[in-house]
């Protein structure tokens, strides 16, 4: 790494998740990502290096093939002076949210991942001196399970995200139900996409964030911090969309600016700026599943108006949403069909634990690993190979379901916009843009039992506390199924 970047004062806290923390350089467009561990759970330097290299290899050899070269930035593993790491850790400790401080930053190995700062434009550095807007969207799962392994008919009608919302609000994670439904965003229908993006802006939760010049200006800073001040957001956005200040202030101005933002995001999500091998692979037809979710407010309103069938325009094959959906649909069996196959692999590993590396459970994530994912057969021949393929496909699908899409925008003048640069027009301005995918770490093999239990918990809560209230027959059925005591009397 460049010695000029070895001053800890030139770095700032950028954010963190459950397993890593990110700092960004104030002058250049790079970030460093450090691993985190619970106290007294430190790994060796070699283990940390291998873990980080696996993340890089998975992005490079697997997810790049699904999403495309321009969308995936896998970075590289770098080794830093330990003194620099320790000083940096001390500097940012006070900026970390309290609920994140239950895990310690790795300060002993010196290894970190060096990545581009995805809140900045990734392709055209000539505009770096201009203001940059970045919208981060975590779209979640864009299809309803079509597998015959599903035991509850409800899962064929209501999407996972909409069901999970009710459980999250009941558990206190969020204060209110979001109107956002992933199937609306993935529909390709502009009206439904606009509704989905508006819903995200109304109730961002952790599914939408907006940055200006790398600084978070809208969205949740943590699980409880829900921000929905459109007036303040419009104040930040106005110079981007109406540079001549031609609009009067007030609610009408705010709605107009938000509408412009939604229009631009929609156009970019439907555009294509890259090609990839996965676009040529045999894909799972979206038509196998229902194209709308019965819990979506958009769907309910149309049904209420007598329209029983929603129009689905479909996604252009080259756009990032289409590629994301295809990767998500590697989950062809649903967790209910996958879990017995996971148990088959587990049983084999219990008997032959030394085979874990041969099965590539923890890597290496190379060309051979990627090619195994292309087998879309769903006929179980009872073999370990079949079970392993489905388990690995499920892990990749779960990664795609939890990824984030980063859209960076910067204004450009009419004479600067050439055919070589992707440009999206707005009413009073034009933007050059770059689109990237974030959060592409392969989901852990060990998380599958948790996902199985969580799935049952989500569905059961929705059945008993949401659908039962809407359906009197369902409510009576649950009353009949409640535990009761049989008392026998002498006669």
TrEMBL record:
It is found in: Cytoplasm; Nucleus. InterPro entries: Ins_P5_2-kin (IPR009286), IP5_2-K_N_lobe (IPR043001). It comes from the Eukaryota. Its EC number is 2.7.1.158. GO terms for cellular component: cytoplasm; nucleolus; nucleus. GO terms for molecular function: ATP binding; inositol-1,3,4,5,6-pentakisphosphate 2-kinase activity; molecular adaptor activity. The keyword Cytoplasm applies. Keywords: ATP-binding, Cytoplasm, Kinase, Nucleotide-binding, Nucleus, Transferase. Transmembrane segments: none annotated. It catalyses: 1D-myo-inositol 1,3,4,5,6-pentakisphosphate + ATP = 1D-myo-inositol hexakisphosphate + ADP + H(+). The EXKPK motif is conserved in inositol-pentakisphosphate 2-kinases of both family 1 and 2. Phosphorylates Ins(1,3,4,5,6)P5 at position 2 to form Ins(1,2,3,4,5,6)P6 (InsP6 or phytate). InsP6 is involved in many processes such as mRNA export, non-homologous end-joining, endocytosis, ion channel regulation. It also protects cells from TNF-alpha-induced apoptosis. Belongs to the IPK1 type 2 family. This is Inositol-pentakisphosphate 2-kinase. The lineage of its organism: Eukaryota, Metazoa, Chordata, Craniata, Vertebrata.
